[in-house]
Structure to design on (297 residues):
């Protein structure tokens, strides 16, 4: 299986001034993220405003970005749904665009049991040849994948890992110790990425890597080289930015920040709106504290 990477950017979806997906700018942003430390990108995830993207937009986004990226990095499609049949259909369609893997969010709103969650993900995996990454984000979906369920799902050949955004390090520890060898745990929270790696996790699917990807990769590399103190120092230096980019609902702050540094990604789609004045000031003032790694050319 292709190594999808330790540092993956959960990429925003650029829109033009009419609110339509700007596919050329999306391809440019993906390449910029790869140039600034990321090993790959996730498209149409939470940060990519998946709830407001049409399926035809998602498929064109996958195809355009994968065509631009080629073999330079991984492209992961967010194809999850709270409808199992819809998720199967979306994953199969994404597979035809040439993406490298799919990200499958825990079903939202209908609140399935753990057995329901198991059967949901099992069914999707059985109907695609893509590597499947589970995505546990109970702050968005209400339900949470129990460690026992993840351990059971890890036995399915093409369920290769999980993006863990629960913040529950005790449960994550059970996943790390109980899943099959080679099962990959990415942090889904920027603030948890180094603690999770210290527990045995692999990396992070990140928001702030849009802006400070080289610094994040440097932190990870320092830790992997045994220079824990230096890694801790970089990690702690990133905390103000992490706080600022989650001051209101993601991806509102990160889109605002990317625009502020000179890379046009447009506004968010309704019902998301621009940050309030106080939050906007915090974001702008925090950006001044950092060297921005994202190339603008």
């Amino acid at each position: 299986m292709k190594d999808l990477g330790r540092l993956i950017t959960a990429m925003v979806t650029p829109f033009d001034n009419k609110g339509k997906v700007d596919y050329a700018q999306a391809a440019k942003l993906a390449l910029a993220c790869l140039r600034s430390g990321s090993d790959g990108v996730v498209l149409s995830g939470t940060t990519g405003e998946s709830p407001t993207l049409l399926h035809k937009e998602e498929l064109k986004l996958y195809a355009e970005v994968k065509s631009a990226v080629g073999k330079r990095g991984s492209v992961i499609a967010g194809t999850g749904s709270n409808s199992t049949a819809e998720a199967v259909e979306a994953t199969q369609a994404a597979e035809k665009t040439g993406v490298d893997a799919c990200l499958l969010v825990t079903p939202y709103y209908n609140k399935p049991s753990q057995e329901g969650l198991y059967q949901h993900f099992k069914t999707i995996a059985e109907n695609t040849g893509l590597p499947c990454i589970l995505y546990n984000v109970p702050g968005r979906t209400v339900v949470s994948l129990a460690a026992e369920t993840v351990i059971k799902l890890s036995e399915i050949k093409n369920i290769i890992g999980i993006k863990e955004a629960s913040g529950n390090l005790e449960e994550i520890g059970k996943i790390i110790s109980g899943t099959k060898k080679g099962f990959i745990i990415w942090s889904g929270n920027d603030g948890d990425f180094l603690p999770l790696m210290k527990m045995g996790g692999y990396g992070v699917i990140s928001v702030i890597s849009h802006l400070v990807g080289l610094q994040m990769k440097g932190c990870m590399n320092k830790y992997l080289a045994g220079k824990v103190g230096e890694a801790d120092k970089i990690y702690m230096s990133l905390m103000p930015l992490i706080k600022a980019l989650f001051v209101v609902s993601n991806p509102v702050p990160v889109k605002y920040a990317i625009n502020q540094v000179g890379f046009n990604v447009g506004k968010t789609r309704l019902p998301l709106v621009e940050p309030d004045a106080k939050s906007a000031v915090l974001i702008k003032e925090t950006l001044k504290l950092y060297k921005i790694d994202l190339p603008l050319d």
